[in-house]
Amino acid sequence: MAGPMEQFEIKPLIPLEINVINVAFTNSALFMVLAVVSIVVLMGYCLRKRTIIPSVSQSVPEVLYEFVAGLIKENVGAEGLKYFAFIFSLFTFVAFGNVLGLFPFAFTFTSHLSAVGGLALVAMLFNICVGVKKRKIGYLRTFLPKGIPLALAPLIIPIEMISFLSKPFSLTVRLVANMTVGHIMLKIIAGFILPLGLLGIVPLMFDGLIVVFELFIALLQAFIYTVLSCIYLGDALHEH
Question: What is the pTM of this model?
């Protein structure tokens, strides 16, 4: 039986190199594509017949819209709604990536630092662009808040820069750790099902309960990821 860490191995499905650079299409890339396709198909299906009184299927994207819009209003303010598309994309991409990883033989790309870290860096660069566009040169006040004596600048600026650069790290580690630990537990407990014979029903039941719990964690982590992204966007837009 494969070890519990084997499920996290990135394997090339379509090997490809360009100038000695490995750009193979991997299982991680496949499930990223599947996550995007799943989102597009779900939204397209639910919104195929739009009516004033929404059907059950139409209610799904509307509830998601209201949920994400509420997070933005609460953590960024009304002006943050102009960036709704970005935040909504973050939430759905992370949520679908987490949930898809719970299916048998699936790959959880949100358990990898490279995938989630890259997404977090994109979010950070997006926030920088938004902050510079809104506050111009005043955005530099992020690293030296008002009211701080200029004499303390050599101490405060490095601290604020470390705090700023730690934001994508905090987004990444929290999500990766939760996805990794949960899947390791599922794999370890599943390894006892067949060897125990009839008694394997016990670990099977535990695995079933963990899957339900992991589904909750998957959605919760997508929620936390989105809330923190909103908070960081709010910091970029507003001067403190």
Answer: 0.89
| Residue found by looking up tokens 């970029």 in the block | 236
Place of tokens 């959605």: 219
Question: 211 and 151 in contact (C-beta within 8 Å)?
Answer: no
**Residue 144: partners with Cβ closer than 8 Å, 6 or more residues away:** 153, 156, 157, 160
Query: What is the CB neighbour count within 10 angstroms for residue 82?
Result: 11
User: Nearest to residue 212, comparing CAs of 185, 193, 192?
Assistant: 185
User: What 3-state class would DSSP assign to 229?
Assistant: helix
3-state secondary structure 40-80: HHHHHHHCCCCCCCCCHHHHHHHHHHHHHHHHHHHHCCHHH
Run of H or E residues at 22: strand 21-22
The two tokens of residue 183 are: 């899947």
Residue 4 is classified by DSSP as: T
pLDDT digits (tens, 9 = 90+) for 133-185: 988 888 888 888 887 888 888 888 898 889 888 888 888 988 999 889 888 88
